[in-house]
TrEMBL record:
Active-site residues per Swiss-Prot or TrEMBL entry: Y124 (proton donor), F403 (proton acceptor)
Any one Gene Ontology BP term: aminoglycoside antibiotic catabolic process
Lineage of producing organism: Bacteria, Bacillati, Actinomycetota, Actinomycetes, Kitasatosporales
Organism this protein belongs to: Kitasatospora griseola
Keyword tags: Acyltransferase, Transferase
PANTHER family: N-ACETYLTRANSFERASE EIS (PTHR37817)
The protein, known as: Acetyltransferase
Occurrences of domain N-acetyltransferase (ranges): 1-150
GO-annotated molecular function: aminoglycoside N-acetyltransferase activity
Pfam families: Acetyltransf_17 (PF17668), Acetyltransf_9 (PF13527), SCP2_2 (PF13530)
Amino acid sequence: MEIRSTTEKDLGVFVDTVFAAFGKHPASPEEDGGGVWWSALEPERGLLAVTEQGRPVGTACAYSFELTLPGGSTVPVAGISCVGVLPTHRRQGILTEMKRRQLADLRERGEIMSVLLASEAVIYRRFGYGPATYTRKLTVPRHRAALTPPRAGQEATGTVELLRLGDCRDLVEQLYDSYRRLQPGAISRPPRWWSRRAGHPPTAPTQRWIALHRDADGTPTGYAPYSLDDSQAMLVDEIISLDDAAYTALARYLLGHDLVTDITFRHFPTGSPLRWQLADFNAGSLTNETDWLWVRLLDVPRALTARGWSADGELVLDVDDPFLGERTRHLLTVRDGRADCTPTDREPDLSLDISDLGSIYLGGTTPSTLVRAGHIRAHHPAAAALADAVFRAEREPHCLHWF
């Protein structure tokens, strides 16, 4: 068995193998090769597992993204995708060997972490990934969708304009890029995704209406792509807003849409104020709560010093990385929102797996939760509370992009 890098010439074989691994058939791209989810693949970042007879039986790839961290900094990350092995060759160690090769390649490129969306939650923890952001759906029946008037002097300002996606794609791209730089856990949508019309709406060519919000000065500050099905149910792909005023105005427009049976918000963050704005707090039904972005740290000191921090303190972290056969101990010292991370022989405050460090890294999972779950070992009573304070993000991490 050989694990080799792919090139542009391998694209067709790579795509066919991916689809075969998942039991599906690829759609036909548009004339220019775009308009399908895989048209944004970066062929030079793919891997093929090939048998001695030359038959491709496994795939994995990486996209080049930026991830926004707590504190507002951004770092390059590898977005892992297209991981699959043909059903005829599973449980033979091929996936494990591909992941070893891929992590080695990422380290050689100098990338400090990778991220992915897990098709099955039981697969990726053994490779060092931990769930770090979460998402869910909110469905509100139209007849119960009334919003309360603001009680804190926050009067609605600005306007909402209705556009077709094809008429404002550049503006939507710019607004998303501004939003993702403000939101911990968000990842970039590179120009290649927009130009190739890859992924899910609004980057995909699927027809969508766009509700565009402009502030009182006429500056665009948010958008929401949505569609109505044959039963007049509305699906809102995402709400992108640069401030709370834009978010509320867009939500009010969507919830007030006539001739709609119900409104489903596909990616509803836990910290959204919308349920509190509904006149009937219980009008919305929350479903499909699930993991979304998984994080895998490849360089612990660089990753910990890249993000911002909410509280001062010192923590000694004993980190076990069984997949890579590494165990390291780090002194994390946080002062005024920045951190130093150095090797130490001091007794640990917390002992944890690299996957658990990935889960708490963005602030979406508290260390004390994983202590209570038996994942993290706290070596003294105050350790978990201190870690909660230090790792807390200024804003709940949330990721919308599918890859």
